[in-house]
Amino acid sequence: MVKVRAARPAEAEHLTGLVMRSKAHWGYDAAFLAVCAPDLRIRPDDVTARRVVVAENGRGEVLGIASLEGAPPRATLGLLFVEPSAIGQGVGRLLYRDALRRAVDLGVRRLVIDSDPHAAGFYRAMGAVAVAAAPDVGADAAALVRFEAAPVPLADWARAWTGGGRAVHLGNVGEFNAQFADATLDPEQRPAHHYACLAAFYSPYPAALVLPRPVPRGWTELVCRQLGWTGVEVYDGLLDADPGLADAVRARPALAGLLTGAGLPLVPWGRTRPFGRLAGRPWRPGELRYESKSAAHALFERILADGGHPGIVLPRQWRADGRWAAARMLAARTRAGESTVLKSEHGVGGSGTTVVTPERVRAAGGARAVLRRLPRGPLLVEEYVGGPASGADEGSRDLTYDGFVDDAGRAHEVGGAVMDVADGCYRGATVGPGVVPAWAEKSLTAFGTAVGLALAESGYRGWFDVDFVADGAGRLAPTETNLRLTGPSIAFMVAARLDALRGAGHLVRIADRVELGARLPEALLDEWCAALARGCAELGAVFVPAIPTAAFEPAPWLGVLMAAHSREVLDAAEALVRAEALAVGAMFGPP
């Protein structure tokens, strides 16, 4: 195993030889190397003054060297060289990440890197941002490429979420959904068991993943490599059909003792009675009452009654006593030319929510015909909030605020995100600096904070979000709360990890469903994902497969995460991923 340690003054001559061998690896001639030699020489006094460290394998062989030079708030990665025989084995990545960590500890907020042109791809893949060409080193030298990174510690909210340490993640998505017995949810919870793979990302750095279905080994290895994790234990395949993951763990006393006895936080997708038994936490029957859409609407009404939220408008909502009552309401609104939102009390990802326009009602043959096509169960009838005019910031129509209430009852803000929603169905979200438009940020944050305080007062503990739609007047309409982790929450976790690992300012996008052109054998899927990770790295982006198990369905798909420091690179990475996914079928040739 390779580890990083402080260099020793007595090693200076040996380290200089390593640096020169590494530089020569790129094919430079003797004359050029002679010009570089004075700047690349390491003297005994440099070892401490330049904060030199080395990467050493288990046999005590030095494989690489790095220096962190200068004083806060600006420092320089003066040296980063790897023994030619060790290039491509992760030594450079280890040294670079160690330099960023040390920079954070020193209080450095701007790290400058003058890279050899041959190493530019490496720094781009590590998350550094190219800013300009650096001055030549000697008259005949190739120009260096200047990069910068912004070292930052783990975000405050992420430290508060799990105490800044590692956690055990329980993928109990099906168990959470099943407790509501909503007619719009799949009783077998098959999609939920795929979504449980997101347990990999319930905090920035897991210690263990507990999953209902088996997952590919190559998937966990790639995720760990992309996010710099080590020592992650995976306990999968615990369920055949029943959605009760927490009870499946309790039925294995040795596993339950291992997971609960390590003193690490136990993080579920959402709170359930079985999870309370597993975690030894009291279960409050009313804890999840605001997961109900009508209860959430009533909560929003109470908050708005106090004033102070001029940027928020609440759509009217009515509870239909039965299907015929709903049909009468829908018919009346159709005659008035109004569009309507029909909702079940519960549902996830847009399930149970249907937007009905007057045109759709007439095309279906009337309100009763529309309702006959919807799942059985109670319905809420809600006023439709019209969006901005075509082309006017349509990409920011669906917004969300994420936060959590800690065990002491303190509400924490995480941030806002823009969701990708089509026909009422959630498809993904993007988080990061500047994602939420400036006109919406203040209203979204203020109202989300108010909801968090109200949830804390009600006794709720855990993650929550508040979903909004934007109207045509630049106001936000809250539509529901989710008292659990969410797709956007996963993106926030990954952003926090990547910011600490690669420098501040990551935009992260989660795409729930990327259709694959064909099913792949597990080994081939691993190879394909690894190739995508390399392709995105060349763009300066990070690719992480998030939901791999759906790739083996008859109609295969994949959930993915992509991250970058700019919107342009993020969009390019998504375009690459989607194009390669559709092209999967071509790997097998013509039918």
Q: Helicity range of the residues? A: 25-40%
How is the main sheet built?
8 strands, antiparallel
Biggest sheet strand order reads: 20-19-16-17-18-21-23-22
Termini Cα gap: 46 Å
Beta-strand residue percentage: 15-25%
Overall body shape: elongated
Contiguous helical run count: 20
Structural class: alpha+beta
According to DSSP, the number of beta strands is 23
Rg computed from alpha carbons, rounded to a whole number of angstroms: 27 Å
Can you walk me through this structure?
The chain is an alpha+beta fold and 591 residues long. Helices cover 36% and strands 24% of the residues. It contains 20 helices and 23 strands. The protein has an eight-stranded antiparallel sheet, sandwiched between helices. Strands 1-2-3-4-5-7-6 form a seven-stranded mixed sheet. A four-stranded parallel sheet has the order 10-9-8-11, with no helix packed on it. Helix 1 (12-24) packs antiparallel against helix 2, helix 9 runs parallel beside helix 19 (522-539) and helix 19 runs antiparallel to helix 20 (567-582). The longest helix is centred in the C-terminal third of the chain and has 21 residues, at 438-458. It starts with a strand and ends in a 9-residue tail after the last helix. Mean pLDDT is 92; it is low at 136-141.
Can I get a quick summary?
The chain is of the alpha+beta class. Helix content is 36%, strand content 24%.
What's the SSE blueprint?
Layout: E1 3-6, H1 12-24, H2 30-40, H3 46-49, E2 52-56, E3 62-71, E4 74-82, H4 91-106, E5 110-115, H5 120-125, E6 129-133, E7 145-149, H6 156-162, E8 167-170, H7 173-178, H8 190-195, E9 206-210, H9 217-227, E10 233-235, H10 245-250, H11 253-260, E11 266-268, H12 273-279, H13 293-305, E12 317-320, H14 323-335, E13 340-343, E14 353-356, H15 358-364, H16 367-372, E15 379-383, E16 398-405, E17 411-422, E18 425-431, H17 438-458, E19 462-470, E20 476-482, H18 487-502, E21 507-515, H19 522-539, E22 542-547, E23 557-564, H20 567-582
Parallel strand pairs: 4-5, 8-9, 8-11, 9-10
Antiparallel strand pairs: 1-2, 2-3, 3-4, 5-7, 6-7, 12-15, 13-14, 13-15, 16-17, 16-19, 17-18, 18-21, 19-20, 21-23, 22-23
Helix pairs in contact: 1-2, 9-19, 19-20
